[in-house]
Amino acid sequence: MIGDLLEPGDIQPLLRELARRVSANRARVGIRVVGGAAIALLNADRRVTQDIDVLIHPAGSVQDVVDEMAAEHGLRPDWLNDAVKAKTPFVGDDDWVELLREGDVSVFIASTPLLLAMKMSANRGVRDTDDIHFLLEACGVESLEQAQEIYERYHHQEVLSAGAQARVEAWLSLRRPPA
Fold first, then answer.
1. Distances (CA, A) of 106 to 23, 39, 99, 117, 162
2. Is there a single domain that holds both residue 40 and residue 119?
3. What is the pLDDT of residue 90?
4. What domain count does the chain have?
5. Contact yes or no for 160/150 (Cβ under 8 A)
6. What is the DSSP string of 42-66?
7. Can you give the pLDDT at residue 178?
């Protein structure tokens, strides 16, 4: 951990400790990781992240442990938060991959297609470019149409923004050999 930032190698140990502590309280909890932290679990070369975005069921069930860990490890108070819940598409269990389990506490990460759709939706300029490129590669995208299909699977009847389309096209042009 660098100050208030989490390195890719910090994320899984923190999630494992969280799951262990919550499990010791005999709680049954599901934690679903999205955003930059989920991508960092897939890509050790990813830059640092400020927090771990999660969906937690039941909501609020881990906050005491999160607060304890923040104090003990010098983490930001919002190092683990569910602010992304309003931006996460409703998806089925097939879009989650179990990362770890401690007793009755399960931690999942979003599938690469779900992460790609979410990052293309956010499309926050330079901040999301490397993640989008990594996820396009991980999903085997070979055309703008394929990227749009993935996006529409999670954002029904929406189209990619012009900025997201440009990001996909730029990535595709880097992959194509010159004519």
1. 9, 18, 8, 23, 37
2. no
3. 80
4. 2
5. no
6. H-TTSPPBS-EEEEEESTTTTHHHH
7. 60
Dist CA 120 CA 89 (whole Å): 13
Distance, CA of 170 to chain centre:
23
Please indicate, yes or no, whether residues 82 and 96 belong to a single structural domain of this protein: yes
Print burial letters for 47-85: b (CB count within 10 Å at least 16), e (below 16): eebebbbbbbeeeebbeebbeebeeeeebeeebbbbebe
State both tokens at 114.
């779900």
Residue 55: the pLDDT is: 94
Query: ω into residue 177 within 30 of 0, thus cis?
Result: no
Residue ranges, the chain, pLDDT below 70: 1-3, 176-179
Query: Which among 81, 110, 139 is the end of a domain?
Result: 110
According to DSSP, the residues that pair with 80 across neighbouring strands are: 52
- pTM for the whole structure: 0.91
